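#random but structural
TW: two for the price of one
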Amino acid sequence: MERQVRTVTGQQRVPVRQRYEYAPDSVLPPGETLRETLEALPMSQADLSTRTGLSTKHINQIVQGVAVLSHDTAIALERATTTGGGGTQPAGACVADLG
């Protein structure tokens, strides 16, 4: 049983998980997102394999939705497909290419 918490003004406080429940209508598999990213760059699975240090077979299994995407693998993929710093510019892209 949850404890009833009241604010200074006497209002009942609602737990955060009840206030901000996130329920997406759909979720794309990571492999589908990765496939779209590779097409947009353009970068081959072999190039991505070289940049991440993962085998080409493992990259292909992620794209096909067979392999599980671990936290470490997701970070490696992010670093290999962006310039870093949380930016969205593809690796190897020039400022002139961005318009």
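TW: number two ↓
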Amino acid sequence: MTGKRANDVQYGGDHYQVPIQPWDYIIANGIGYAEGTAIKYLSRWKRKGGLQDLYKARHFLDKLIEVEEEKEKQHAVPDPDAFKLPEEILDADTHRSIRWK
């Protein structure tokens, strides 16, 4: 490094010349990769990538939603009715109805 603070240097443009650097906000709030990358693109879209940056932000949000939906599925509480035995079954040999309770 050149002795300057990272916030004092920007490579490849000036699209992050804002009062609060996105990476400072992301780090200070313990925000994860997908959320942080979406924030990065949302913070710069008007100054750099335009609509393409909005699509990129949405792409990262879509991935985050997929991951969180999968976690919910894996930790979902099973429906207790799904494990109930039927009150009546058909005997395969006699074809008579068998009831229990």
